[in-house]
Amino acid sequence: MAKNYRPGFTYADFASQFTAEWYDPDKWAEIFKASGAKYIVLTSKHHEGYTMWPSTTSFNWNAMDVGPKRDLL
């Protein structure tokens, strides 16, 4: 961290860099089905409360407000 990021850079500072640019849920479903998977588990809310969907209870700490600016679920 010290070598690559400014002093005081926090976990929350990474959120603006999260773009989900290669996230393609339809393609993922195709791959899961082809693999024979019977179910998958998507982490929809991270341990620090960042949600992968727009959330009024997680204001400014969700995928719509900071990061990819879209609902990932």
Question: What features would you describe in this structure?
Answer:
By secondary structure, the protein is an all-alpha fold. It has one domain. 15% of the residues lie in helices and 0% in strands. It contains one helix and no strands. The longest helix has 11 residues. It is globular. The mean pLDDT is 90.
Topology at a glance:
Blueprint: H1 25-35
Shape: globular
Helix content: 10-25%
Along the chain, the helix and strand elements come as H
Percentage of residues in strands: under 5%
What count of helical segments does DSSP give? 1
Radius of gyration: 15 Å
Question: Given the helix and strand composition, which structural class is it?
Answer: mainly alpha
Low-confidence stretches: none
Taking the alpha carbons of the first and last residues, their distance comes to: 30 Å
Total number of strands: 0
Mean pLDDT: 90
Oligomer: single chain
How would you characterize the largest beta sheet?
none
Number of domains: 1
EC number: 3.2.1.51
GO molecular function: alpha-L-fucosidase activity
Family: Belongs to the glycosyl hydrolase 29 family.
Function: Alpha-L-fucosidase is responsible for hydrolyzing the alpha-1,6-linked fucose joined to the reducing-end N-acetylglucosamine of the carbohydrate moieties of glycoproteins.
